[in-house]
Amino acid sequence: MTDTAKYIPKDEDFVPAPPELRETVKSETVRGAKGDMRRRFFAQKSAVAGVVILALLTLMAIIGPYISGHDYNEQSLERANLAPRVPGLASAGVLDGSEKLHKTNGSETINLYEELGITDEYYIFGTDSLGRDMFSRAFMGLRISLVIAAIATAINLIIGMNYGIISGYFGGMTDILMQRAIDIVGSIPTLVVVTLLMLVLKPGMGSIILALMLSGWIEMSRISRAEVLKVKELEYVQAARTLGAGHRHIIFREIVPNITGKLITQIMLSIPAAVFLEAFLSFVGIGLPAGSCSLGTLLTDGFQNVLLHPYKLLPSAILMILLMVGCHLVAEGLKKASE
C-alpha cells in the first residue's frame, strides 16, 4: 500500500478574485434573478392585462380632460343634464343625446340637443346638473384621486418600510416595544380615526393625504418586518456580517433589494385602497370640498341623480372598478412571479 504525500495548503491557493470579477458575477446574478421574475410576470396574461389597464387609465388621466374640448369646470346651466352624445354613433341613432325620463304620469323621451339647437356639439358622457362636461370631469377626477393615492402610498411606504426594517432587523426589546406601539395604533378602527380627523381639519387634498397616512403605513411595516425576519437569517446576510459589514451595508445592500418584491405588491394593493377611502370620505361629505373633482365627488353627484339620470353614475363607477381590477391583477402577478 503506497503512502500518499500529505498536501500542505499554500498562500497562492487562497488568492481572492479580483474586484471587477466579483462585481461582474454579482451584477449578473442580480440581473438574472430580475430577468427571471420579469419573464414569470409577463408570462401571466392576467398580469399583462392589469398593466395595460393601468397604463391606459394613467394615460387618460393625463390627456383625458383635454380630449372633449370642454373644460371640466366650465358651467352652462342651459346645457345642464344633457344625455351622452357620441360622434359617429349619433347619426346611427345610438347615443344621439336622447333620454327617456320616467315621471309620475308616465315616461317621456326627449333630446335636449335638438331642443337647444346644438346638434353639432357632442358630450360623450353627457353633462351634470350645472352643465359641466362629464367626460373631462371623469378623467380629471381620476387624475386627482390617483395623485392623492400615489402621494399617500409613497409616504406610507417610506414610514412603514423604515419602521418595519428597524423593528425586524434589530429585534429584541426594540422589536417588542415597536410592535406594541403598532398594536395600540392599529387597534383603533381606521374609519373612526380618519373620520374624526377630517371633521377637525379643513377639507382639501392635504387633509385627505394626512388622513390616509395615519394608519396606511401599519400594514406596510408589518410586511417589511416579516420579510426582514426571514431574509436576515439567510446565508448571504450572515456571510456579510461575518466579513465585518456594518448595519447600513447589510440593510441597504443585502436586505432591502430582496424585500422590494413584496413591498411593490403591497403598493399595488394600497393604491386602490387609498382611492376607495378617498371616495368614501367624499361620498359621505367629509372629503374634498363641494365643487371639487375626484372619483368620490363624482360618485356622490351621480348617486344623487341615479334615478332620474343614471348615466351620471356610470363613468366614475366604471373608472374606479377598472382601477381596482388593474391594480389587483398586477399585484397578483407580482406575487406569483416572486414565489
Overview of this protein structure:
The structure is a single chain. The chain has twelve helices and two strands. It is mainly α and 339 residues long. Strands 1-2 form a two-stranded antiparallel ribbon. α4 packs parallel to α7.
Report how far apart the termini are.
Answer: 54 Å
Number of DSSP-assigned strands:
2
- Along the chain, the helix and strand elements come as HHEEHHHHHHHHHH
Output the strand order for the largest sheet. Answer: 1-2
Estimate the mean pLDDT confidence: 84
Q: Can you tell me the overall shape?
A: elongated
Q: Which radius of gyration do the C-alpha atoms yield? A: 28 Å
Helix content: 55-70%
Beta-strand content estimate? under 5%
How many helix segments? Answer: 12
Largest sheet: 2 strands, antiparallel
Low-confidence stretches: 28-32
Class per helix and strand makeup: mainly alpha
Brief overview:
The chain is mainly alpha-helical and 339 residues long. It is built from 12 helices and 2 strands, in the order ααββαααααααααα. 63% of the residues lie in helices and 4% in strands.
Helices and strands, with pairings:
Elements: H1 19-42, H2 45-63, E1 98-103, E2 106-111, H3 112-116, H4 134-170, H5 172-186, H6 190-200, H7 205-231, H8 235-242, H9 247-255, H10 260-283, H11 295-304, H12 314-338
Antiparallel strand pairs: 1-2
Helix pairs in contact: 1-12, 2-4, 2-12, 4-5, 4-7, 4-10, 4-11, 4-12, 6-7, 7-10, 8-9, 10-11, 10-12, 11-12
